[in-house]
Design a protein that fits this description.
mainly alpha; about 70% helix; globular; heme binding; iron; Cyt_P450_sf; Cytochrome_P450_fam2
Length: about 160
């Protein structure tokens, strides 16, 4: 949700079934990337493309995530106020308009989709891992939660 706030200017309810589905796809893709099938795909992509297996699920999940992100970008385009960007997507769209006549610009639609996809994937996973690690440390060292001030949340 932190990366969603940065990218789209909104947080999703944890009860939102579409958002939960996207999170499941992300989690499954990270698991698949580290599996034997995922590593074989990295080494032999031209061969693995023609073979069935769990690595094919990775592409299906990416398609679901890409459609979700494309819909969010389309919603932003429909409500864009160039004078008041709300978030990263708005800022990128505004810059695309400014750079419209520049054939060498990096502010193109294809780059926007790749950037949003990468930020969403990496930001969601890294934030989640960092928060889990912090909670684990707090559970192992509850004295740190109070910060030595005698009014910690664990007392």
């Amino acid at each position: 949700n932190t990366i969603c706030r940065i990218l789209f200017g909104e947080r999703f309810s944890y009860g939102d079934e579409e958002y939960r589905r996207i999170l499941r796809c992300l989690a499954e893709n990270f698991r698949l990337e580290s599996s034997i099938a995922g590593q074989l795909y990295t080494i032999l992509p031209s061969l693995m493309n023609h073979l069935p297996g769990p690595h094919q699920t990775y592409f299906q999940n990416n398609s679901i995530i890409e459609k979700f992100l494309a819909r969010k970008v389309a919603e932003h385009e429909a409500t864009l106020d160039s004078g008041a960007p709300r978030d990263f997507v708005d800022a990128f769209l505004c810059r695309m308009k400014q750079e419209k006549g520049n054939p060498r610009t990096a502010f193109r639609r294809d780059n926007m989709y790749v950037t949003v996809f990468d930020m969403f994937m990496a930001g969601t996973e890294s934030t989640s891992i960092t928060l889990r690690y912090c909670l684990m440390l707090l559970l192992e060292h509850p004295e740190v939660a109070g910060g030595g001030h005698g009014h910690g949340c664990w007392e």
